[in-house]
Queue: 2 jobs
Job 1
Amino acid sequence: MSYPSGMRTSVEKVEQTRKARLNNEFPRLSVDDKAALLRNHHPDFREGDKLNLRCGVNKGERVPKVLAELIESPSRLNLASLDLTKPDYKTDVLVIGGGGGGVTAALTAHEHGAKVILATKLRLGDSNTIMAEGGIAAATLAEDSPAIHYIDTMAGGRFKNIPDVVEALVNDAPFIVDWLTKLGVVFDRKADANYFTHMPAGHSRKRSHSIKDLTGLEIMRVLCDEVRNKGIEVLEFSPAVELILDADGRCAGAVLEDLDTGRNIIVEAGAVVMATGGIGRLHPNGFPTSNHYGATADGIVMASRANAKLLYMEYIQYHPTGVAWPEQMLGLLLSEALRAQGAYVVNCDGEQFVNRLETRDALAAAILRECGPRGKGVETPTGMVGAWLDTPMIDLIGGEGTFLRRFAGIDHRFKKYGINPAKEPLLVYPTQHYQNGGVAINVHGETNIPYLYMAGEVAGGVHGHNRLGANSLVDIFVFGRRSGRHSAENYRKKPAEKLSLDHVSAHQEELKSLGISSGITSPMILPDYRFEKALTSTQYVNEIVEAE
Amino acid sequence: MKNKNVTMIPIYVMGKKFEVPEDLTILKALEFSGFKITRGCGCRGGVCGACATVYRKKGDYRIMTGLACQTVIEPEISLVQLPFISARKAQYAVRDIDTESLDLVKTYPELMRCMGCNTCTKSCPVNISVMDYISAAIRGNLEEVVELSIECVMCGLCAARCPAEITPYNVALFVRRLYGTHKLKKSPMLEQRLRDIENGTYKAEITQLKATDVKKLQETFNELQANKGASV
Ligand SMILES: Cc1cc2nc3c(=O)[nH]c(=O)nc-3n(C[C@H](O)[C@H](O)[C@H](O)COP(=O)(O)OP(=O)(O)OC[C@H]3O[C@@H](n4cnc5c(N)ncnc54)[C@H](O)[C@@H]3O)c2cc1C
Ligand code: SF4
Ligand code: SF4
Ligand code: FES
């Protein structure tokens, strides 16, 4: 297949300018220029894509439109038909979500003596975690320190991060690398047995630990295997649809839905750890997404209905380098490590317009500007636009074979479509990637609702307004471990007197009294891609292209 | 999306005919045909192995295997959704296993049934030399198993097709974990860092940073960035 002729002309320009670019890197943005770029071109700053919530404890909170619609909808549950007096399962700790955060919380709660059930939407391990390519951040090098990691994380988050939680993150990070290593994760090493690390954008030291470009896959395989070895009870294809509270509004379990039979399953629990991940499959702003099939913000919807407080939910991270061609791979992520290893970002004429090591938000905004108002994007036959990520520079800088050695997975996937990324540049466009905010937590992963914990992407505050690369993997394990342990030690010992979904009926009453009717129910559980919706829609691109 | 000239092609899903745009992946072709996928879909990006599937091309006698989210359809292709196939997994505590006296065949006795037919390798959607890592496992060469199997997405297709009923991916996972736990040396720098954190070496500095105003923190960050050196 390779590149169609229309795109070839641009590829040739990229080839012609490659050598000259090598020792001539585009300067970094000044603080003011970066602020202006974000203000004018980052989707986070576009008015009209967000709404203030009109109901519940989070009334007034600004969130993406697509999320507001789900929060302001009635429940999927038929409340009248549920009998909460006969739970199907009773457990000390219920973990909701089978990605990195959930599996870690389950293992840790089990390790601390609690009886654990893990309920998840798809197969155990099907998650955003398994997709992580780049790496996991931890200050393990001698020239690094948790203090420097702290500064970088705060600066990346526009200084809006919750300091105590960041302190927990950076201090625990090296212990997480140790924990994973002992479980048998085969991290890339150097000849002297120290870890091979690299420096994603926004970090000031080499602190991202990887397993080739398969970091999440390797970690997830090992952790799922460990869950099976420990005999922890796992309920697959059984997503949670509502949290259960007691008469005093404290968390007491969850109602699940069996995806095969539609039956509801009631789990009474002494504590609940929610680790349901992100929001990508809602396609905020009409962007493509890098996220897995189940990333539909269910946790946010359930938690906010149970009166948990949200933080920074309006901030969505767009990864600058999502695939824009071939069409079959649209939205898939191309790891930051490609840029760290030398791939420059250039326009249709092969000119640089931004430094490759700017933070994600700035780089995404710069690409949107280049492809939109500046008209320097490359158009594909399907009407998508993008900028080039000049991957052949990696071999030019690192020597022949570097690309293949470091990026076997990427190489394999593109070659299927006749593109050789070691020799040809890749077309990229920002893709929805990460939910920066979420349910507010403290250092133990506790929310404002007693016995309700959050771990991972569903939680907010750790990353402020913008997460740095490699900082999420470490976050999910740090807070997976913290919430797992704290919940195992502090779950409710005396059973709740009454299990209740009154908060859900109250929510529905409120919607009625406000005259809000969305015509749908929530949480979403799975996106609907049937019929025409199977064809990738990229409204955002169309909007800017048409606005020109 | 400005999809102007879409060419439609016929495909068969469990024997039923549908017309879908050419160039779709199997996963999207199923969805375009109106199937709502619950099982058999995870990352949609070729890394999780949830969408393992089998199909047949027109006029071809072979059963082909692949990942539905990665395989592009062709006219008159016959699709199904693969049912869930459970697999045997040994129970173990990796840290307690002595790799010197380890006999993999004790944990997975069915390994000895391998007849070298290479069906596993031919069915692997990410082109892993499955048979080679199985034979490395039988020979006890852990490092070779790690190298050959590292890209395994646990899709289960090799096991589904193996006439000797071996579950190659679980054997490989077991070996990789053993190798990671026992054969990789400890990192001296990490050991030192863990001791330093436990001794509170960074406590005062971080406490001070937490109280530092944004402007000052930003300046410190800028200095760090200016002097950070190469990224790899
Ligand atoms: C392509 C890609 C690459 C990335 N690369 C990196 C990287 O290199 N470094 C880094 O630090 N971060 C990276 N990230 C981000 C990071 O991987 C994720 O933010 C992180 O793994 C999230 O972990 P989690 O456990 O919170 O959520 P997930 O891993 O997404 O797990 C959530 C789980 O909850 C389940 N679930 C959802 N809803 C329900 C429900 N209602 N009931 C029950 N279960 C439910 C899901 O099925 C899933 O199993 C990447 C993300 C993507 C998408
Ligand atoms: S080795 Fe087996 S389980 Fe792993 S990817 Fe290949 S076919 Fe799938
Ligand atoms: S398919 Fe089974 S029997 Fe054949 S080579 Fe592979 S492991 Fe051996
Ligand atoms: S859905 Fe994950 S590999 Fe296809």
Job 2
Amino acid sequence: MRVIDVRGLRKEFTVRVRKTMLRREKRVVAAVDGVDLRVERGELLGYLGPNGAGKSTTLKMLTGVLHPTAGHVSVCGFTPVPQRIKLARRIGVVFGQRSQLWWDLPLRDSFDLLKAIYRVPGEQHAAQLKRCRDLLDLDSFMDTPVRQLSLGQRMRGELTASLLHSPEILFLDEPTIGLDVVSKQAVRGFLAELGARGDTTIVLTTHDLADIERLCSRIVVIDHGKVVHDGSIQDLHLRYGSRRRVIADFDVAFTYPVDLPGVVLESSTGTRLVFAVDEVGPLAAVLAANGSLRDLSIAEPEIEDVISRLYQTPAGQVG
Amino acid sequence: MGETLRIYLQLIGAQGRAQASYRVSFWLDLAGNAIVVGADLLTVLVIYTQVPKLGGFGVAQTLVFFGLALAAFSLADLFVGNIERMKTYVRMGTLDGVLVRPLGVLPQLLAMDVGFRRLGRVAYALVIFAVSLSYADIPWTPSRVVLAVVAPLSGAVFFCAYFVATATVAFWWVESGELANALTYGGRDFTSYPITVYSGWFRKLFAFGLGFGFVAYYPGLALLGIPDPLGFPSWLGWGSVLVALIAVMVAATIWRTGVRHYRSTGS
Ligand SMILES: Nc1ncnc2c1ncn2[C@@H]1O[C@H](COP(=O)(O)OP(=O)(O)OP(=O)(O)O)[C@@H](O)[C@H]1O
Ligand SMILES: [Mg+2]
């Protein structure tokens, strides 16, 4: 079932640019410029792009916060802005940069208020809360006022808050921003578990590519408001010809030429050779046949490399 | 409907609990409000030590206008006063969070910061209004009794609408705070005195164009049983209800347009 259907989505902002001391000029910038996006139920979608690409703006239009300048948007079968309230019951939203909890009250109170706001039946609320408490270790700070929570604790609270009404789609705008390694892993593990159950669709933006590698089967990359990639991480590697590396260390300098199809010698420092390969097997066999091979390691292609190459490609031009 | 009301009451209750953690500031505000209200009242009394009449009215009568305006203003301030923080809500992105919840935007914002701190001012205002009525020699009739209750309420509704309308400017213009403030307090000060002290286009604009004449002046005249020096009929006192309703409709339209033009922030 298709839960998000977006065609030709566009958002323009009018900004005033100061020209001289007194004169200001109006300029229209397209933050989102013709985005098409279709998401099926249960997908875990990573929405990537450099700073200012239009990720948050897109999410705001999908959640009913902003009115699109043009284009068609349907989320859970609703048109977000006019049907904002109906839509709100079916989605959960976490803005990593700002809190949606009650700042001066204990975390527990926020959950109670949300129960009322979303009219969640008692048992469902209890069950959902129990699950989040277990998975996210909330128990030690349920009674702490939100303003006294650490960023990591607060983010776990935000996640719980967004899920109490069992939304069909969860939108997360940079949920791991500013978190330490342990908290990031807690958040990722939780989302992975949620995604694996298959009934919640997750759309997530992030600048931490480890989130993407860990969680997302599909990534959509936008730049200057336009979609520049839509597919799996493997597709991206394929498209940019990024290949795995084989790093071989020898006891004595290895000087024999290696001539195999799909193998390129990238660097050689006497006893250490680095190859880029399509397939590891044949090369490994050749190298191992040389008696002085000490160590052999394989490095997966770096997603950072691919993404940064993608960001540097002028928008609209396919790599 | 009842369910929705219960949700808002719960939200307001939560706000009360949150503010209870700042108890000292509650008492400070109470004392501060007393000083501010006292100073305003004193201003009126000092003026009357210099002049016997102001715009054709004696001190007891002017105090009815003053009390009525203050009651209307502080009641409105209690319920929607925090809307003046609209620009902060826009800038901080609070509004984004409000928009993704299944409740109306305006009631949520209002419930987020009900001014329990401003309760003191309401109490002072009601006392001043009641005392002014008892000093003013009012020829009481049943309809005047009703008007004495209806007038502060419709004035409050009028100010609520006015606050919301001026605060809405923040949707387009994030740095609009000072303008909204000037309009809000300007409007209150205008209504505190009989409109006969103003003149020309200024009076026409504020009293009739923007409707401030119907907050305190005309209902006040009807209560006092005094004919309008400007020559308008006395039933205009009841016009405050109609003017309040019109103000609500205008404010609602401005508000809806504002929400539609909301552009959030870039981060
Ligand atoms: N309210 C606004 N008013 C004016 N311009 C805006 C507004 N919101 C966003 N923009 C502009 O639109 C563009 C896209 O912004 P957006 O916040 O969607 O980027 P993003 O992809 O989320 O970036 P980041 O990774 O930095 O969060 C930027 O150029 C930004 O300056
Ligand atoms: Mg963003």
